[in-house]
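Researcher: I'd like a structural prediction for the single chain below. Treat it as a standalone chain; there are no partners to consider.
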Amino acid sequence: MRCCVCLFQQSLQCSPSKMAAGESNSRSSCLNLSNSGPLGNAPPSNSAHSSPASNGGSMGASGGINRSAGNSNPQSGPENGGGAESAVRSTPSAQNPSRQPVGQSGATSGAASNMTAATSSSSSSSSASTADASAAVPSLPSSPASVLVYREPVYNWQATKSTVKERFAFLFNNEVLSDVHFLVGKGMGVQRIPAHRFLYSDEVQIGPETVMTTLYTAKKYAVPALEAHCVEFLKKNLRADNAFMLLTQARLFDEPQLASLCLENIDKNTADALAAEGFTDIDLDTLMAVLERDTLGVREVRLFVAAVRWADAEAQRQQLQPTPENKRRVLGKALSLIRFPLMTIEEFAAGPAQSGILTDREVVSLFLHFTVNPKPHVEFIDRPRCCLRGKECSITRFSQVESRWGYSGTSDRIRFSVNRRIFVVGFGLYGSIHGPTDYQVNIQIIHTDSNTVLGQNDTGFSCDGTASTFRVMFKEPVEILPSVNYIACATLKGPDSHYGTKGMRKVTHEAPATGTKTCFTFCYAAGNNNGTSVEDGQIPEVIFYT
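Model: Treating it as a single chain, here is the predicted structure.
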C-alpha cells in the first residue's frame, strides 16, 4: 500500500489534539468513529460527502484498533493481487498496531477521522496536498487507516485472467510484482521500465533490428525455443547483401546450420555478396573460411579485389595506414588462399602484379607460371574453383588401352553432344609409356558452329608410367547445353603415351542417387586431329557436374 498516516496528517495540517477534539480548522467536522462497526461496514453517514471505509479491521468502543486490523481480507496479498491491504499487511505496524486512546496521541483514530474529512473537503489545497502525499508515499511508513483516503484501485486482477498465459501477459511492462527495472535512454529522455525475471509468454515478435540481440539472450539463458525462432527468422531473411554479416554472427553464436546456409548463399551469389557493404566488416577467420572454398562462383581476380577492399577497412580498424605493406600484414594467411594461378596473365598483370601486396619474388614466380614450360612451382593454390555443388561425375569412352601414341604439335580432337545441360570441368588424359614423365598440355572446349573457344587452360600434368588416366582441369566450369555440338581438344607436348581403343559412340552415365541419365554422343572431328576418332585416340574421359 503506497500511503501512510504521517503523510496525511501533514497534508491535512491537523494536530493530534485538534483531531481528537473534532475541531474543523476550516474543514468539515471530523466524524466520530467510536460507535462504528467494522471498517468497510460502517453505518450509513448523514454526510453527503462521506465515503465507505475499506476492509481492514474493526474499531473498538474506545477508538483503538484491534489486533486483527489489516488481516480481514482473505483475498489480499501478492499472490492474489492484493493492492492496498497487502501493503498494509506487509508492515509490522499494520499487523500488530498498538492501542491508543483518543485524546492522548491521536495518531491513529485522529488520522482516520481526518482522512474521512478529507474526502468531503472541497478545498483545493487539501487536494494538492493529497496528490503530494501519493507521490511521496513509498518512502513513508504505512497505516491501516490510510487505506480510507489514498490507494490505487484494488481488485483481484488474477481473477479476471482465465489462463496463466494471460496473467503473465498482464505483467508485461507492469509494476505489479516487478522485481527489476531498466533505465533506458539518456539525460532527460531516460525511461524506467518495470520487468520481471521470467519469460512472460512463448509469443515471439522478432524484427531485423532485434533478432541478433534476442539470439544472444536466448543462447545466454539457454532458451532453445526462442533460439530456434531467431534462427528461423534469419533463414527466411537471408540474402546476398547480408550473407556475410549473418555468417559472422552464426559462427559467433555457434549455429552451424545457419552458417552452412550463409555459405551456400555466398557460393550462389558470390559477386553480389562480395559487393555488399557488410563484407568489409567481417573478421579474418570468416574471410579465410570463405576463401578456402572450392565452390565460389566468381573469377579469382574479383576475389583479390574484394580481399584488398577488406584489408583497407581492417587496417583502419587497427589504426594503421592503408599501405600495401599493412594490407598484406592484416590479410595474413588469407593472402595465400587467393588462387593467383587461376587468373589470366592479363588479369594478373593489370591487378595483383601492380598492387604492391605481393613480393617481387612472388610476382616473378607467377609470371613464369603463366609463360614458360615446364611451369615452376608456385606458393599459391592452382586447384580450380568449381561453383557447382553435388557429386563430380565422369565417363570413359574407351574399353581398352594400348601403347604408343605420338605427338608432333597437332591437337587431338573429338566432337560430342549431350542430352541435358551439364558443366564440364576437365578431361582425363593418358600418360607416358616410358615411366614417370611430365607433360605440357593445352585443353579447350570449342563451340562447333561458331568456332568459339568456351573454355581453356594452358597447364601441365605428371604421370607415373601406368595406363591410368590423369586429370587436367579447366580454370572454370564450361557450360554444355543439350543437343549442341562441341569439340574437346587437347594439345600435348611430351613423349609417346598410352591411347584408347574400342571406343563407343554413345556413353551413358546414370546418377546413383537420383537415377538421372546423362547421355554423351561422340563423333569424328574433321580437320587436323592427330588421329583421334570415335574408335581410337586420346581424351578418354570427360569430367563434369550435372
